[in-house]
Design goal:
Layout lengths: L7 H4 L6 H11 L4 H8 L7 H11 L3 H5 L7 H7 L5 H6 L7 H20 L7 H11 L8
Helix pairs in contact: 2-4, 8-9
């Protein structure tokens, strides 16, 4: 059974790999810096392509990179699976992105918004937070 989730930032503590990760994601793959920061702090999952690029420059395995993300609250994941969000999520899809990828990226964006606004101990209204996030974040940023 795997241990507790460790973010990339935690896994790379003490290593001079941060600049290499930024270059691998932002420079080579075109991921925007805010998304790189979210990936490093475990607030956004990485795609398999991104995981491969990060693994090459850090010495971590692709599996370690893919698992370096905080789990989503069950209520948020369940809410985003509701059909009422399908049209909005499809509208946010970029080239090569699946609806599932956009749903996960949106979920982490909503989670980060909730933490910034209410702190981690609050129980936010997920439908309200999803609406706020979708209104505030331009399409295309979701997948980075």
């Amino acid at each position: 059974m795997p241990g507790p989730t460790r973010t990339l930032q935690e896994q790379l503590q003490g290593r001079p790999d941060l600049a290499a990760v930024i270059q691998a994601l932002a420079g080579a793959l075109g991921v925007q810096l805010p998304t790189v920061i979210d990936v490093m702090t475990g607030r956004r999952p990485v795609t398999p392509v991104q995981a491969g690029a990060v693994a090459k420059v850090t010495g971590l395995t692709e599996d370690q990179v893919l698992r370096a993300v905080s789990p989503l609250p069950a209520g948020l994941a369940s809410e985003l699976d509701h059909p009422r969000w399908r049209k909005a999520l499809r509208a946010r899809r970029g080239p090569g992105e699946s609806e599932a990828m956009v749903r996960v990226a949106t979920a982490y964006g909503v989670l980060a918004l909730a933490a910034r606004q209410t702190g981690p101990m609050s129980a936010p209204s997920w439908p309200q937070r999803i609406c706020q996030y979708l209104a505030a974040e331009p399409p295309g940023r979701g997948g980075g």
